[in-house]
Amino acid sequence: MAVESQKAQPTIAHDRASLLMAKRIRGVIRSALIHASLIPAAFVFMVPFLWMLSTSLKPDVQFYSYPPVLIPSPLQWSNYPDAVTYITFFLYLRNTITIAVLATIGVLISSSLVAYSLARIPWPGRNFLFILTVATLMLPFQVTMIPLFIVFKNLDWVNSWLPLIVPHWFGGALYIFLLRQFFMTIPMELSEAARIDGAHELKIYYSIILPLSKPALATVAIFEFIARWRDYIGPLIYLSDQKLYVLSLGIYEYRSQYGAEWGLLMAASVLITLPIILLFFFLQKTFVQGITLTGIKG
Amino acid sequence: MAIALSSVTVERASDSGKLGGSPVQYPRRRWSQGTRHTINGLLFASPWIIGLLVFWIYPTLASAYYSFTKYNGVMNPQWIGLDNYLDLFTDDDDFRAAIYNTVYFAVVSIPLAIICAFGLALMLNAKIRGQVIYRTIYFLPTLVPEVALALVWVFIFTPRIGLIETPFRFLGVRGPCWLTCAQWAKPTLVLLALWIIGQQIILYLAGLQDVPQDLYDAADVDGANFLSKFRNVTVPILTPVIFFHLVTSIIGALNFFAIPYIMTGGTGFPANTTLFYSIYLYKNAFQYLTMGYASAMAWLLFMFTLIVTLIIFRSARLWVFYAGGEE
After folding, report:
1. Are strands A255-256 and A259-260 parallel, antiparallel or unpaired?
2. Top CATH class, B85-325
């Protein structure tokens, strides 16, 4: 018996080794196949941005050359200074930042207060308010678009930034939802203890809940800032005075009835996109958390 | 899912309510604890209560009223009963075109988006190197402002000379006419919409990473192969994400506005094939100033969205799987 087992041992070990080997080879092939489909996909996804970047550094004559030129030589950097002077780029930039910052501050303060009420204060009717909040997420913006325009017109706010900023000071449904979910994960005992110590709700809100919710607040701030930065239909409806324009409207001015200044247009597009991409790179974790928080838990 | 899930979260809310309602001794007692909570709750929620009334509830009701009137935004609305609705359904070819285009876009692009996002997420989840880099790249187009994205697409998809022509030139054939002719304009937009699925990829990926490993182990013990593990473990666990994607993308397709509007200036060129519901509604409201008519369109859209989402929520019972049997 002992002899038999001794004989068997090497073959089992051998089998195991070859099995492992086969498994490893299978793994390598599998990941090679996966990369072979992920890489072309990545290329396709990068095309719009790469082509934007490439065109922004090209002289006119190379726009449509065949075969296409990805890295132009020489690089026509002058498209950038030309782009920011062809239209009043810095004015539009300042307008965009002003609106985005004011709206973001407003949405942060109001949404966190409301979310605090829904998550941390037990009062009758808060569930009803929460359901209403979720319901507004389903309401197409077109339904409220016209009456809101009339309201703002009667207030004499049309052709000002107010319609693009003020509503955000009254809370955003998605952010209230997101922050409420986050606030509920903070142990209630913290609030209880603070209440026993005589702390007022406002104090619990800003000295306990807000400091513990920095990641969620950062997510809200980034999402709102980017949403306002990219916003198109709002400025389209409300802004007609060119001095008030934001970048998403101003960028149109590179187009004329004879075509477009593609080099300048692409340079401006790169300038508009870059801040968002930088934000994304530095705050990727916050982004991904935010998306999964709104999606999966929503 | 929002409603289904909200019931869960509401339950949780009431749980915490019980917690909060446990007898707590306050140092000063001007009001009972319940009254105090109600006052504080209302005060903290007051911005949103006002916001709901002013920016959501009033406009929704006003929009319903306008839909029964002739209204140009300047003169007083004039009651005309159901005329707007009747005109829409009997006497408006553009409206019919807009519905057809929107439904076409939704029906073709949503399944494609689900398949692509799910497929890419599956491959990303295979514990490969560079996962974060791939994820970042797939997410990139969703960061580009729509205006810039739409314009760069117009540039790339210029027939005969744009970048897109490269493979066709290489093969020595002529590429399609893309956005400039009636039979290609909509398929091109469907194709372009596939570029902006980065958020969905992240959602599916997060869902996949939540799949408990022991389910796969159990399947392995049962001798399940890759395909049956995919069908019986992966897909069921991800149905809530698919469900969320379905609902949000239907709402997104019905609101599809900025990209085609920027590309065509809202003309619906070529031959009304890119005239989507939201664009036609916007034009009625702010270009033709037929705001009553546009309000009727908005309410029809609202009703349609409501019915479709209700149907999907109802159907969710049949195909959406919730771990732990909470639902």
Report:
1. antiparallel
2. mainly alpha
Q: Which residues of A touch B198 (CB under 8 A)?
A: 45
Enter the pTM of the model: 0.85
- What separation in angstroms does the CA of B296 have from each of A57, B30, B75, B87, B106? 48, 51, 18, 10, 21
DSSP string, B90-105: HS-HHHHHHHHHHHHH
Q: For residue A10, give every residue at least 6 positions away whose Cβ sits within 8 Å of its Cβ, in sequence order, or none.
A: none
Residue A218 to residue A179: CA distance in whole angstroms = 11
Return the amino acid letter for A131: I
Q: How many CB pairs under 8 A join A and B?
A: 315
Shortest alpha-carbon distance between residue B216 and chain A (Å): 17
pLDDT digits (tens, 9 = 90+) for A194-246: 988 888 999 999 999 999 998 889 889 988 998 999 899 999 999 999 999 99
What are the φ/ψ torsions at residue B107 (nearest 5 degrees)?
-65, -35
Each domain of chain A, given as residue ranges in start order, spans: 2-55, 79-295
Alpha-carbon distance of B205 to B202, in angstroms, equals 5
Distance from CA of A288 to the nearest CA of B (A): 7
A246 interfaces chain B, CB cutoff of 8 Å = no
Residue A112 near residue A297 (C-beta atoms within 8 A): no
Tens digits of residue pLDDT in B184-222: 899 999 999 999 998 899 889 888 888 888 888 888 888
Closest CB to A273 among B73, B148, B281: B148
> B255–A142: do the CB atoms touch at under 8 Å?
yes
Fold of the CATH domain A79-295: MetI-like fold (1.10.3720)
Q: Are A140 and B298 in contact (CB under 8 A)?
A: yes
In the 8-state DSSP scheme, what is residue B257? Answer: -
Do A181 and B166 count as a contact with CB atoms less than 8 A apart? no
Question: Which pair of tokens denotes residue A1?
Answer: 């018996």
What single letter denotes the amino acid at residue B325? G
